[in-house]
């Protein structure tokens, strides 16, 4: 073990591994959130390419609620991972 | 997704910073490819229902264009809101 007192190589590898898992989790969360809110808020007939006002509000509220659900479930699972 | 996901990296040595940045780049590439595939699948499923011809008709083509554009706009908006929530910004109901 190095006399410097910094993390050992093993500890460093573990930290990188954790960081990678955390990042993958966030990307997955974002993707699921995006798809869930698209399904809930967007009319599948695609009458136009723009988002209308109703859809915009729906998206904002959907994202907010999804986030709350994430935190709620996180609490119930014992707070892993931290937001 | 971008490098702001990494939070405060300033304390790390250079090689560690580069390693984290490389990780983000890789995740970004994988995520883009995944997005491409899922968008194609979604717009195909929502817009294409008949198979009397081999080529898309005008209606199907417009539908796919609108679908893709709409999803991309939606995704950007979600991204903005997500970032706000991550930073703990208070927003109106």
Architecture overview:
The complex is a heterodimer of chains A (83) and B (93). By secondary structure, chain A is mainly α. Chain A has two helices and no strands. In chain A, helix 1 (9-41) packs across helix 2. Chain A is elongated and about 60 Å long. With 93 residues, chain B is mainly α. In chain B, 69% of the residues lie in helices and 0% in strands. Chain B has helices at 14-47, 58-87. The longest helix of chain B is centred in the N-terminal third of the chain and has 34 residues, at 14-47. Chains A and B meet through helix 1 and helix 2 of A and helix 1 and helix 2 of B.
In short:
With 83 residues, chain A is an all-alpha fold.
Name a few traits of the molecule.
heterodimer; A: 83 residues; mainly alpha; B: 93 residues
Question: Any low-confidence stretches of chain B, pLDDT <50, length ≥5?
Answer: none
Strand content of chain A: under 5%
Mean pLDDT of chain B: 89
Quickly count the helices of chain B: 2
Q: Which structural class best describes the helix and strand composition of chain A?
A: mainly alpha
Largest interface: A-B, 33 and 33 residues
Low-confidence stretches of chain A: none
Question: How are the SSEs ordered, and which strands pair?
Answer:
The complex is a heterodimer of chains A (83) and B (93).
Chain A: H1 9-41, H2 53-76
Helix pairs in contact in A: 1-2
Chain B: H1 14-47, H2 58-87
């Amino acid at each position: 073990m190095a006399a410097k007192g910094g993390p050992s190589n093993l500890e460093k590898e573990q930290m990188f591994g954790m960081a990678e898992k955390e990042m993958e989790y966030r990307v997955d969360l974002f993707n699921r959130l995006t798809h869930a809110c698209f399904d809930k808020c967007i009319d599948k007939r695609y009458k136009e390419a723009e988002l209308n006002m109703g859809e915009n509000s729906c998206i904002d509220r959907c994202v907010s609620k999804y986030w709350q659900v994430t935190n709620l479930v996180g609490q119930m699972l014992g707070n892993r991972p931290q937001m | 997704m971008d490098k702001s996901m990494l939070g405060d990296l300033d304390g790390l040595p250079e090689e560690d910073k580069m390693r984290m940045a490389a990780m983000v780049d890789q995740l970004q590439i994988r995520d883009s490819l995944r997005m491409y595939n899922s968008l194609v699948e979604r717009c195909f499923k929502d817009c294409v229902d008949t198979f009397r011809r081999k080529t898309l008709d005008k209606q199907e083509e417009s539908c796919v264009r609108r679908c893709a554009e709409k999803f991309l706009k939606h995704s950007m908006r979600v991204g903005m809101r997500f970032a706000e929530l991550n930073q703990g910004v208070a927003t109106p109901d």
